[in-house]
Amino acid sequence: MKRLEFRNVTKRFGTMTAVEGVSLAIADGEVVSLIGPSGCGKSTLLNMGSGLDPASSGEVLVDGELVTKPNKHVAFMLQKDLLLPWRTIVENVELGQEIQGVTKAERRQRARDLLVKCRLPDFIDHYPHQLSGGMRQRAALARTLAVDPTVLLMDEPFSALDAQTKMVLQQDLGRTLADTRKTALLITHDLVEAIAMSDRILVMSQRPGRIIEEIVVEIADRDSPMKRRQHPKVAGYIVQLMNLLQIEQAAA
Amino acid sequence: MSAASLLTMQPNVRKMVAGSALLFVLFLAFWQWGPGAFGIPEFIIPPASDVWKQFLRMVAKDHLLFHTGITAMQVGVGFVLGVLLGILCGFALGMSPSAEFVLSPYILALQIAPKVAFAPLFIIWFGYTVYPKILVCVLIVFFPVMINVLGAVRALDPDIVRLAKSFTANRLQVFWKIEFPAALPPLFAGLRIAATLAVIGVLVGELVGGNIGLGYLLSVGEGAGDTAAVFVTIILLTLIGIALYGIVVAIESRVLHYLPARARLAT
Predict the structure, then answer these.
(1) Closest Cβ opposite residue A99 in set B157, B162, B173
(2) Which chain B residue shows the shortest CA-CA distance from A70?
(3) The CATH number of B51-263 is which of 1.10.3720.10, 3.40.30.10, 3.40.50.720, 3.40.50.1110?
(4) A48 and A162 in a common domain
(5) What are B74-110's pLDDT values in tens digits?
(6) Residues A159, A245: one domain?
(7) Does B2 touch chain A if contact means CB atoms closer than 8 Å?
(8) Number of domains forming the structure of chain A
(9) Would an 8 Å CB–CB cutoff place B260 in contact with chain A?
(10) For residue range B180-195, what is the model confidence (pLDDT) as tens digits?
(11) Which residues from chain A sit within 8 angstroms of residue B164, using beta carbons?
């Protein structure tokens, strides 16, 4: 079953075409990475998926339904944690459910459970400025999961973190996505992250962004990016991606 | 902050309080005996004790507390109205860039115009009542509040609003859960400025016309060459301003308690 589907989607801003004729489909429980050069319209795709921006032409569907405005089945997570400084961590995690009208007791319970799961039990009543970057991004993940979305759209969620923290958070996310069988579209610049986290990798071209290649990652343990990183096949995928993205030519 | 660092800070705080009290005593002593020592006559700078005596005399004979109360009332009413108006316009203009574009020349002109110059005009309009004084106060308080709220709405990260919208927030929810709380820190910075200006607005109105309020007593003192009376009114006006500022700071520290200590101003 297709959870998220783009059918021949084009997005123009004035005379500039950001993405052109993009078609993709993500099945239930699948994690797909989107990788491509800067400014190729990856984030534009994600905004259309979340219903914040309409497509200029083509269709975006979630669970077979046309997306025209934000809906409860899709949640997004950005590089910035976007935690509200005036709310405690648990109140931040509750934000989505609060907007959607879930009762206070119910959403508080869910937020607490998620914070325990995201390994932040001691910071429930802290304010965002009291947390490190990695902890803040964990809280942002908890906030995303709190509304129990079927599809997660993530735009470079870990790119602002240091290398070690990033690996730990990738591991957390990988396990969580597998445990809860969430469907996810992950935008990233990090080749290893794409290989370690996803079932498939879609490679985009320069602007106007099109999907030029699909790579199926045939490594076991998708629920453990840490294990996957150490797999000997990773190097081969990196070479393949480097060629597609013409990274060596850019350096020459 | 950990308990240990609180403990180590306390003697420091005690020292600072003691230093501040000592400075106040020195200031009073200098005021009492300094002018005499430098040969400055009492009608130029009356010593502290004379000003105190004059204060007691004015309380007994000139209804000083009544006049102080009138001025304080006008400051309070003018401040609250000006602040509410400033908040309202700040959000309205902040959310509607086209409205701001159309109105900005007028806003700028009104902001640059010296607000106290409107006092005579308002007195012509409303007579020797409390209204012109309150109106000058409203006008003078309005701008720093509006500008700060407007700036805060503009500075808000649009991705935060998009996040709320992606959770299916409606316009009202975006306002109450995101825009309004996000505007509070700059709003309070504006309120601090407004609190210091509010007294000026009322005072100028009172100086221009009327027979009540500290401004009236000030011009009477001036006419009589009563320096001590002028000192008394200046001090009381300052105290009204300090009280208002103190209230703003007290509310701020409750509302903005979430800010890290270093981001908050101490006074």
Answers:
(1) B173
(2) B166
(3) 1.10.3720.10
(4) yes
(5) 999 999 999 999 999 999 998 888 888 898 898 888 8
(6) yes
(7) no
(8) 2
(9) yes
(10) 999 999 999 999 999 9
(11) 95, 99
The crossing angle, in degrees rounded to 10, of helices A104-117 and A89-99 is 130
CA distance A194 to chain B (A): 24
CATH label of the domain that carries residue A34: 3.40.50.300
Domain C-terminal end among A127, A148, A169: A148
Residues of A in contact with B182 (CB under 8 A): 84, 86
pLDDT tens digits for range B209-240:
888 899 999 999 999 888 999 999 999 999 99
What three-state secondary structure class fits B167?
A: coil
Each as own residue / partner, the long-range contacts of residues B250-256 (CB below 8 Å, 24 or more positions apart, any chain) are B251/B188, B252/B188, B252/B191, B252/B192, B255/B184, B255/B188, B256/A86, B256/B184, B256/B185, B256/B188
Check if B238 contacts A (Cβ < 8 Å): no
CA Rg value for chain B: 23
Domain interval for residue A160: 1-73+153-252
Contact B162 A52 (CB under 8 A): yes
In this structure, are A195 and A180 located in the same domain? yes
C-alpha–C-alpha distance, residues A138 and A173, integer Å: 9
Domain positions in chain B are 51-263
